[in-house]
Amino acid sequence: MEYTNKALRIEHGSLLLYYCFDVGDEILLDKIESIFGEAPTTSHLVVERLTPAYVQYRRPPLLIELGSIALSAHYAPAVCRAKLYDFGVISIIFKLPLQGELKDLLGVATELVGNPKVYQLAREQLKRLQGALAPGIVQASHNAETEWEDYAIFFIQQFEYPLSAQQLLTEYSTEIAKILRCEIEPLSTSELSEAIRQPLSYYEDELALIDWNAAFLYDPRQSYDVPDVLEYAVAMLLELRTYDTLLDRVLDRAYDDLEKKPSLLTLRPFAAIIDYLSEVKLDVSEVIEKVTNSLKLIGDPYLARVYNVAATRFGLSAWEASVRQKLATVESLYELLYERTQARQLVILEFLIVVLFVLDIILLLFLEPLLK
Length: 372
Fold this sequence. Notes:
Number of strands: 10
Order of helices and strands: EEHEEEEHHEEHHEEHHHH
Oligomer: single chain
Structural class: alpha+beta
Helix content: 40-55%
Strand content: 15-25%
Strand order of the largest sheet: 3-4-5-6-1-8-10-9
């Protein structure tokens, strides 16, 4: 059959809008289940390919249905769900049905992706959840405000006729690139190429294109393993960025305390900042370790490639390196302040010993004549 670059109609598809929020140090999923009359749905990766059973979350997140919400007067209402991760992240997910021509997705992208009104709707749902789930959320002791990340996935299950990944790329790459970049204006050749760089396919008739702002998935089997992996990568980005910002504030506070001149007689002048650095170091290390080990994809090479491409697009390695480096700086400052405190205590103790020795001599000198 001959395929020409004509209008391509979508028979069945969805726009998945993810808004991931860092709400605390931890979410007690077991406690959340007991809060609701009916336990939320446990969300496992839907793995249809022949992969080992252990390719799962270490601690599966929970799904909570939040009903339908109108994102725009131009589109049908979106199904809203929340996904709760034990490492302190809540994802608000809007699922909007898609139909019409492929080129029409550009209008959907420019109107809904990155829309402040949609973000506010997500915040409202988050606030609603936080009120209900407060007993199960361990609040962050250091973060000043709620950090967030958003991401969009154009998930197409069926076109008007079957297409291979190669046919889709060859004939409709320009449209897809503009959708991924949410750009109406003509893109340069380099930007078009960059947007659809590193296409992934497991089967001949499926395609995954992952960009920094959005992803385009074509999967007639309607499996949700790839969207779940992408969502996890976004949550990973959120946590790394959140704790990178936190460590900046911690280091600024530590440097300010170092510049202060403590009282000469204070035994532990840096006690407060030492305790603070120790607490932050443990908390950040625990959360980063929990996030990093939350999902294991070693047994599924294809999903691992999906995650690696997303990690490259999001710059996860750079963010993680930054967090590790700042943690090392926190560790160094902690050791420096601890050593200074120990040295100061030794000096003060030696000074007190000398004072006592001098007093002893003075007393002997005054008392000796009286004793004779």
